[in-house]
Amino acid sequence: MGNKCFKIALVNPKDTTIPIEDYSVYENLGLATLAATLRTHGYQVRIIDGYAENLNHAVVADKVVKFDPNLVGFTCTYQSYPDVLEIGRKIKRQLPSVHLTIGGEHATFTVNEILTESGIFDSVVRGEGEETLLELATAMEFSKPLKSIRGIHFKYNGGISANPDRPAIQDLDTLPYAFRYTLEYGSESGKSFLILIGMLAIRGC
């Protein structure tokens, strides 16, 4: 079981390409499932969802910095990747030693560009993230090498280490129920016409 002193922030940025009149309160079930997996193993996890809560990048970064995590995991799409970079740079300036990782379909298919060009990310989680992120957190907590973690690329000795792929989870019933943090926020927001309740019917993009 993880140490509750080891803290993990999971971040979904506000997509600044979407006009405010089209913005909705929409939970990210991917992060919610990641959070549930980590919490089940004893880790202290906070979801900071700039999209669902309509938070600007400075506020998101400030919330992360105040939480003072050991590990920050971002999710993003192609559209929101520039938003992730802005938030990540703000965090790294204030928490230079924090490990930044990123996942999602865009990260999975642009691994080398992210690690070589961004200048801020320490690793990329490819494909399904529940087991991979849990192993990453455990390795970091106990100062173990990252070489054995399937499903990641990470910076190593001035270069990039590409670990083998992780097989897909065969039985999704083994995953805990999603930690639906922003669902309560949405129901209390008063924006009933903008609330969308998500359901995952497939895995992947």
Task: Explain what you see.
Helix 1 crosses helix 7 (130-141) and helix 3 packs across helix 4. The radius of gyration is 16 Å and the shape is globular. Helices cover 36% and strands 19% of the residues. Helix 4 (81-94) links the parallel strand 4 (71-75) and strand 5. The chain has a 7-stranded mixed beta sheet with strand order 3-1-4-5-6-7-8, sandwiched between helices. It has helices at 29-40, 50-53, 57-67, 81-94, 105-109, 111-117, 130-141, 181-188; strands at 7-12, 25-26, 44-49, 71-75, 99-103, 123-125, 152-156, 159-162, 195-196.
How do the strands and helices of this protein lay out in sequence?
Elements: E1 7-12, E2 25-26, H1 29-40, E3 44-49, H2 50-53, H3 57-67, E4 71-75, H4 81-94, E5 99-103, H5 105-109, H6 111-117, E6 123-125, H7 130-141, E7 152-156, E8 159-162, H8 181-188, E9 195-196
Helix content: 25-40%
Total beta strand runs: 9
> What is the arithmetic mean of pLDDT?
86
Give the termini separation: 31 Å
Query: From N to C, what is the helix and strand string?
Result: EEHEHHEHEHHEHEEHE
Order of neighbouring strands in the sheet with most strands: 3-1-4-5-6-7-8
Structural class: alpha/beta
Sheet with the most strands?
7 strands, mixed
Poorly predicted sequence stretches spanning 5 or more consecutive residues:
none
Strand content: 15-25%
Number of helical regions: 8
Bulk shape: globular
Radius of gyration using CA atoms only: 16 Å
Could you list some keywords that capture this structure?
205 residues, alpha/beta, seven-stranded mixed sheet, two-stranded parallel ribbon, globular
